[in-house]
Amino acid sequence: MRIAWFTHRYHPVISGAENFGRAIVSRFVADGHHADVFTSDADDLRYFTSRKARKVDSPAESLVDGAHVRRFPVLHRVGQKYAGRLLSYLPHWPSQCRYESFMPLIPGIDRVGGAYDAVFAVGFPYTIFSHAAWATSRRAGAPLILAPFLHLSTPGDPVNRLYNRPHQAKLLQAANLVIVPTSVEASAVVDRGVDRSRILVLGMGVDHDGVTGGDPRTLRDRLRIAGHHHVIGHLATLSTNKGTTDLVKAAMALNRDPGQSPVHLILAGTSTPEFEAFAASLPALSSRWLHRIGPLPDNGRPDFYAALNVFAMPSRTDSYGIVFLEAWANALPVVAASAGAVVEVVDDGRDGLLVPFGDVAGLTRSLGRLRDEPNLGPQLGACGKKKVAHGYTWNDRYQTLRDRVRNLPQSQHRPTAKTGSGTVFKRSATSQVPSDLVGKRT
Fold first, then answer.
1. At 259, is the secondary structure helix, strand, or coil?
2. pTM value?
3. Does 440 score more than 80 pLDDT?
4. Strand, coil or helix: what is 131?
5. Rounded CA separation 318/326 (Å)
6. Contact 22, 64 (CB under 8 A)
């Protein structure tokens, strides 16, 4: 089987949708299938609209885990945010898919052609990639599989509205299969006009060997944290939406008594300008308990989790939270926001604690309980570890998805010769796509 995989970013970028993509694509390749990944050259999502942000230090074309990865360069134009927002109002759904104030300009990605047997796209609201996948699937006569990862947050929240646009519903309705990580998201997709028979509820997975077995002292010694001190960890893009600022405020409240041993907070992940502005306003004394270690490489995850007593990510912008599975694999309790589909992932009072997003007082109380009740954290962590012990591996998730894709009916859109195109692709499990045709109009 030949697959095309469209996504806004890909390895070496580390984040939820990116980790899901690499885990599934690499298994397709290991299973003997051919995979082409089409993505951008952005590292920081802000690079989509600002050349000052960080781009990926990788070649335009490369092999990653045996998959062929092509990174389309993001184009930057003066005033593109305003122009993109204006164009998004056009009463033309393909244009709405390609333009918005936050959408990148990526010439050529909508002209990818190939003899594919299945075409995937991951990640709303950056629908320029899903629209490109839709176009490729029509040209190839192949099924379209979308994994939108809707950040549902709470009704009325601006984040919720960002994932509830008419053009997004149009894409979902055009898909042969929609992958969602929870039944909460499945219901939201049904509300957008997709029949349940075309929805696959597929939870996320965890690489147990890759995130466990760390040394509890390695990171603590590096940060000069005493062995008996209580440590909270946070692994995410440092931002308000991920709950980072609320978490810092809660830790500050827990550390108001100078006579107590400090509660340490370790922040791992890429920072944002908004968080930098917030961090600059913190009192100097916060340096005794606040530790920022930057982006965490894959091989740094075991020691990171081993150093913690609690993992916390009170985010409103997560459709699942793979990091919760990683924390549970290490028998850690988790603290999360009761926003969107996370309420289905974290069982409040059993394997973690849930608080409303933005409720700093509630977050402080929950974190305080885990510090002051020594048996609570290990109890929650043990339940979490038992929960992910079976059925939560990427191999399990891949096999379920592969079997479902194999049974998909072929698209009603068959590839046909087009006047002036000069190329007709015929689908074949063994056919090869010439490299000089990838990304060109068919």
1. coil
2. 0.87
3. no
4. helix
5. 15
6. yes
